[in-house]
Amino acid sequence: MSKMADKKNLLLLLDRPTEPVFMEKGTSKSAVFDVPDKFLTDRYRPIGNEVQSRFGEKAEQRIPVKDISVPDLRIPMSLGRREQFSLFIPRHRRIAGRLIDIFLGVRSLDDLQSIAAYARDRINAYLFNYALSVALLHRPDTKGLNLPSFAETFPEKYVDSMVFTQLREEATVVPEGSRMPIIIPKDYTASDLDEEHRLWYFREDMGINLHHWHWHLVYPFEASDRSIVAKDRRGELFYYMHQQIIGRYNLERFSNNMSRVKRLNNLREPIGEGYFPKMDSLVSSRAWPPRFANTVMVDLDRELDQIKMDVNDLERWRDRFYEAIHQGFVVDESGNRINLDETRGIDILGNMMESSILSPNRQLYGDLHNMGHVFISYAHDPDHRFLESFGVIGDSATAMRDPAFYKWHAFVDDVFQEHKESLPPYNQNQLNYRDISITGVKVDNEDRGTNNLQTFWQQSDIDFSRGLDFVPRGNVFARVTHLQHTPFSYTINVNNAGGAQRFGTVRIFLGPKNDERGQPMLLRDQRLLMIELDKFVVALQPGQNTLRRRSTESSVTIPFERTFRNLDSNRPAAGTPEELEFNFCGCGWPQHMLIPKGRPEGLRCELFVMISNFDDDRVDQDLVGTCSDASSFCGVRDRLYPDRRPMGFPFDRLPPTGADRLSSFLTPNMRTIDVSITHTDRTTVRK
Length: 687
Ligand code: CUO
Fold this sequence. Notes:
- The chain is α+β, with helices and mostly antiparallel strands and 687 residues long.
- The protein has 23 helices and 21 strands.
- The strands form 7 sheets. Strands 3-13-12-21-20-15-16 form a 7-stranded mixed beta sheet.
- α13 packs antiparallel against α16 (368-377) and α16 runs antiparallel to α17 (403-420).
- The longest helix has 22 residues, at 234-255.
- Bound molecules: CU2-O2 cluster.
């Protein structure tokens, strides 16, 4: 058996998580793992021969699993097999860290396969998937692997639970090949009586939620191998990626005639927005609990999760953040001061806020961001008297469905902005690029001409068979409705008045023209709503240059196929350059959500283009063969963040004195144009 084949078999262990290891895995070709009898759980060991041969005989491939002495799994097994699992809960996080260590510590792939096959049916299904995924992403010998989409493995976290009985019926009654996709209703979580429900297409978008889950998979916050956590500028990226989410969310709110989201800074105040997820966990067979409108966060005392914590703790941590920011330094565990300076400050604050093992002082600054998720997610059962688990905001795969997520992260961002506002505004030297001027910008979309972007609805089919334990196998599809836009391209005219070729970084942002009252905005407020659309490096010849760039090339997005990638179809041959391209890139904002929805009559926006001096941007490293097409939000695996400027530059700081409006901020290497985003209420079906 070739080495590559071994590696890929590891992925099959992620399939159909609720079925035992000896049952058929895979979609296009059925495979079973031949495990030593002692690997079987107590229920199946007595009938080991029978079950193994029953499923083995039918399978097209039998994967031998080596008998080895298995490691001590007591800690990973201390979380119940069918309980919910959350990275935000400290106990779960520690347990996951232990299992990641085990999977990373195994020397050979054969041994990893044995340990994973042994662990699979004994430990929590979500925990197993998370820890094995992190290990596969970070082990040098498994790097080329494409993890199956999390939505295929755990579809329950992404769609209305009603769809599953219909999928089961379709799979049972109709042979593969003639099956029809099951249509998931467009908006099923609330009615129009709930104003927040206007944003269902953003909060409940599968691609957005997959991106968010994936981001936290790429950036785990706990493992004893520090290098897995200590990635370049990860604290800053935590700040920036989530800041951009809030900016994007607010643009969607403007699209729906709503005002900006209100931050949750008074932790005693009722949370006005309720949320009823209408989802069930297929693993625990329990419904995700709802949160009623006007629920109040209260002290937690949940023995099961080993959480005993007061709202007061959160408030104390919050106050210490502000104190540190206003004093300009944090205090580490040995009592040393670390300055929150221009270069490192935001990264340190990000690590403290998240908080990862990189936090300089978890004792003093606590676990503010994660515990905020936990407090909100348990507000319906703070002392576990009803034996309920956490709400959707407690799980990074589902958190973005809940309106409270945005209130919490608007607060988190507000803390970061307090620091950013303490830094000196950029000076002309940093903003300008001598000899370089932008003389024209336009945006052409394929349908409706110039400077007018267009959105509509689209239906796409997702294969859910990998996560469903139905007996008749084969593909079963669910048809989801999501926002889509007409592809467009930018044309940028640049004059290089210097005598030689120059390099620059093109930075494209989109922001609203007016605020929620229809009034022009101050740049100090507008800058927080400037969403990054793209960033790329260009060579500029002396004289006039015309730059063209397509919307699909964006540095924040990944293509639709990669968001919903199906491992078996369209996969280029192993070892080809195309396969490198296809390489695992599940992290990235979904291309179909690149621009906000807009309004039927058009949402007026400003498109901002800047070309910065590449001498101040460049990071010397080799990006060949890396997955870097969503680097703005996800970084580049095993590499430095590919832009030396602070993330969000030039809008991450207050504008200089005198630049109250965007128009007075501009230097010759910047330019803005007015664009309008028009939404049409029509639905197309993806081919
Ligand atoms: Cu991504 Cu709060 O960090 O969810």
